[in-house]
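User: My collaborator sent over this chain with a note saying "see what the structure looks like." That's all I know about it. Can you take a look?
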Amino acid sequence: MPVSIRPLTDGLLGGEVSGIDCRRPLDAETVAAVEAGMDRHGVLVFPGQDLTDEQQIAFSRHFGGLERYGTPAHVRKRADERLGPGISDLSNLDKQGRPLGGDDRVWLFKLGDQLWHSDSSFRPVPAKYSLLSARAIPAHGGNTEFADMRAAYDALDEAMKSLVEPLICAHSLMYSRGSLGFTDYTEEELEAFRPVRQRLVRTHPVTGRKSLFLSSHAGAIEGWSIPQARLFLRDLIEHATQREFVYAHVWRLHDLVIWDNRTTMHRARPFDAAAVRDMRRTTLAGDAPTIEQVAAVA
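Assistant: Without extra context I'll predict from the sequence alone. Here is the result:
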């Protein structure tokens, strides 16, 4: 069966893929078709993919190396992790498979996933693709929304494009969680979550298109006061998440969704915390620091 991609919105954002079994090895032609679809749509949905963790990891590696950092991107302790290496636990479950309590530190930290963000923007080299597999979903809520940061950049007037082009932001998990009042960190976490520098405008290494690189993890702009920077970033996020730039994905069991963190921003939506939502993510390593990417095309 040939690979086909059906657009999911009136714009370019989002496509649903048919003709691929993600449990099986892909040939070079199929990999190229998926990558071309990602370059065009930014988000691809693969329905009906009943994957094991090993199969998800193997499928992900068709498109690049897995992201590997020695420091954590969460506050869950290693002894309490449910999953093995190479795959991230985006569930609301503890090690015994029970929903986390409403006052659990891990759950309170995870609430930050409901803010608009780009995966690993708080890393020196931010992520390329994220691949999220729905292993169990709640009856209501828990959707994921995606915003097209290319379209958001294109919609800026020329004066605003000139203003944002040279700006450098500081990104940290402490900024996103701090906006929700989460400030309870160990010394190890404070070190792991130290801010990193990212360009506010980035250029896609394949298409050459520019996009805004926004995230709730961004909490400062070099040379600006903190209040001025945060008001400006909040306004930009409001601009970038207007309805015409957004695709809202309603999860079905065994959906696999891939998105390009270089061109999109996303957020999870609320759901009943007592329900089971088992989502597992593989993340592909990025291309280069955004500072270098912009310098290379300046």
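A starting point for your reply to your collaborator: The domain at 4-297 is CATH 3.60.130.10 (Double-stranded beta-helix).
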